Structures are given as structure tokens and as C-alpha cells.
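Case study.
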Amino acid sequence: QVQLVESGGGVVQPGRPLRLSCTASGFTFGSHGMHWVRQTPGKGLEWVAHIWHDGSKQSYADSVKGRFTISRDNSKNTLYVQMNSLRGEDTAFYYCARQANVGTMGYIDLWGRGTLVTVSS
Amino acid sequence: SYVLTQPPSVSVAPGQTATMTCGGDNLSIKTVHWYHQKPGQAPALVIHDNTKRPSGIPERFSVSRSGNTATLSISRVEAGDEADFYCQIWGGGVDRPVFGGGTKLTVL
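After joint prediction, the assembly is written out as follows.
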């Protein structure tokens, strides 16, 4: 079954770190770039970070640059995001998402169900 | 940073055609993708590479372009089409994925 399953969400105090994981199954994980996309409850989608299929390059939204680190372990079919110095505005559902590897490849063709991160004291 | 503009909401009666726009600077030369997100669910792809429908998306979903505006149309709207719809681009001078603010489709 082709799917992405996020884990690691929860309630965390401001300034504290949290690491999210995303386990992929049903497809060749190492053939796809991967994204993290977040969504504040009731709001729109915000792209957070992207990593190339082989992990050789990463890019970040300005809102998280310097605080978040995206990484992957292709041997474990797992994507990560290490989130440091968390702020209230980081409260959101975090989705793991697969970059398409056909066509222009500029789109997401598979989404996880998301994990909720709440930053609160 | 690049901005994609979508109307906040669109309402349509069942059986009618819903249209929702996505606008941006020089959008005519960029590739646009669309997602829908039904209540309580993750987003899902409905159109990629301007006009292509993934398997499972009915022909009722189509996209047209005019100038710097892309328009997603849903013909013969059903109650089950209610969702938030987002347009997205990446590339064509935009170095990171950008989402529009989303349009909430309400079926009356």
C-alpha cells in the first residue's frame, strides 16, 4: 500500500525542540524528492522544506530557515524534520509529501495524513 | 516572494459548474498544479502540469488559462465536491513551492 505516515507530533513548550518522522511504504522512497508542508488549523497550506531524492540538497521556507533541518534515511524509508527553537506560530499540522518524479516534477503526488504540533507553555 | 491569489470562497448549486481562479505575476509562463482538501483530510492532487488529471479524478475537473490567471472548473458539481482547493507552482523562476491561499467550495 502506497502511503506516508507521520509521527512525532505533540505539545511542546516554546523554545524546545521536536523531531518529526515520516515512514514511506509501497514505493521506491529513494527515487523521490520529499517535502514537509504545514497547515495552521483552519488556514492554508505553507511549504516548509524540501530534500532531494538522495539527500544531497535541502531548501527551506524563510520562516523556518536556521531552525528546522530536513533529512532522510533511504535505507529506512524515512523522512525527518528536526525543529528547534519552536515558536507559537509553528503550531500546525505537518504533512509529509512526496514530490512527483514524472512530468515537470514540480508538484506533490502523495500526502501523508499529517501530525499536529502544538507549541504552547 | 511570489504570491498566488485565489478567491476565499465559491458557492454553487448541485449540477452547476463551479469555477475558481488562481492568479499571479507572469503565471502564463508557469506550470500550475491544483489540490483539493476535503474536511478532516489531507490534501490530494487533482490537476498537475496545468491540465493533467491523475487517475481517479473525473473528467468533470478541468483547467483553462487566460493571461496570468488559471481557472479550475468543476462541471456537474456534487455535494461530495465540497472542499478547499489550492493552486501551486514551483519553477519558472520561483525557486521554492508556493501555494495559493485556497478557495473554499460550498455546494448549496
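Observations recorded in class. The radius of gyration of chain B is 13 Å. Chain B touches chain A at residues 1, 31, 33, 35, 37, 41-45, 48-49, 52, 54, 84, 86, 88-91, 95-102 (CB under 8 Å). We will return to this complex in the next lecture.
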